[in-house]
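Final report, section 2: Outcomes. Of the targets proposed, 2,3,4,5-tetrahydropyridine-2-carboxylate N-succinyltransferase is the one most frequently requested by collaborating groups, and we therefore present its record in full.
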Amino acid sequence: MTAVTGPRTSLEDFFTHGLDSAPEHETLERVAQLLDALERGVVRAASRTPEGTWRTHAWVKRGILAAFRHSETVELDWPGGAVDRSLVPARWFGLADGVRLVPGGTSVRRGAHLARGVVVMPPSYVNVGASVGRGTMVDSHVLVGSCAQVGSDVHLSTAVQLGGVLEPVGARPVVVEDEVFVGAQCGLYEGVVVRERAVLAPGVVLTAGTTIYDLVHQTELRGEVPEGAVVVPGSRPARGDYADVLGLSLYAPVVVKYRDGSTDAATTLEGALR
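The predicted structure is given below as tokens.
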């Protein structure tokens, strides 16, 4: 997953230095330009640096927040009816977008990027500022939260939740890099980064403060899943006499191995499904 570059300088300058003093008409014009750029993927809420770290672009979040601040609450033309903020309604897709959006309750909000080859199964929701890379499968009941960054050829299985973040503007969003497999009912929150080709077994829940126990390297990790790591839900004994009496244990995600041929076979998707 590489950083996206493009003609953004004037937008960045505006939302960094000029937003507070700009007249309403200019703000609305700039907000529309930003949302268009986000949808095209030439601007992103966060990008990977050449060193591999993830940099949050606070000015993008300021622009998204401006979209909400300058919106009105209106009725929208949507199956079954909808009421939302006027500048960030649901997007419409056509054949030219190269995205397969299966009918049945899915919504992708204005300002979200879906690359060509993405498949979204119903019902799912992709929020403003999120980016989903080429060839990724978004399965049923998945939430891709605001500004979450999802790479190419990722599989987000049924009921996966990727938490969103707009404030504080400097906070890192959830990041799922290329070729990651995220099992059913996993939850990723608070800016957790899942590196390339990692595998999360069903039910893994990670926050920025969750300790991940790497049994392979005998170390403890926080806030990031290493490249190719296979993580499963685990437990460890709770401390204290009371916990001992009741036999209580605490949730503890565990790296049990790193990706190999057998793992690849287990996570391969039939191409026809895409």
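The helical segments are 9-18, 24-40, 58-69, 241-246, 261-267.
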